[in-house]
Amino acid sequence: MENNLIKMKYSLKENSKFGYRQLYPLPNKEELEQFYEKKYYDHIQKTGRGGHDAKLVSKERKVRKKELDWLNKTYFVDKLDILNKFFPSSKRKILDIGCGSGEFLGFMKKLGWKVFGIEPSKEVLWRAKKQGIIVYNSTLEEFVSKKDQRNKFYVAVLANVLEHVLKPEETISMVKDLLHPGGIICIQVPNDFNKLQLSASRNVKRKDWWVAIPDHLNYFNFKSLEKLLKFYGFDILLKTTDFPMEVFLLMGENYADYPQNGRLCHEKRVNLELSIPKELRRDFYNKLAELEIGRQCIIYARKK
Question: What pTM value is reported for the model?
Answer without folding.
Answer: 0.92
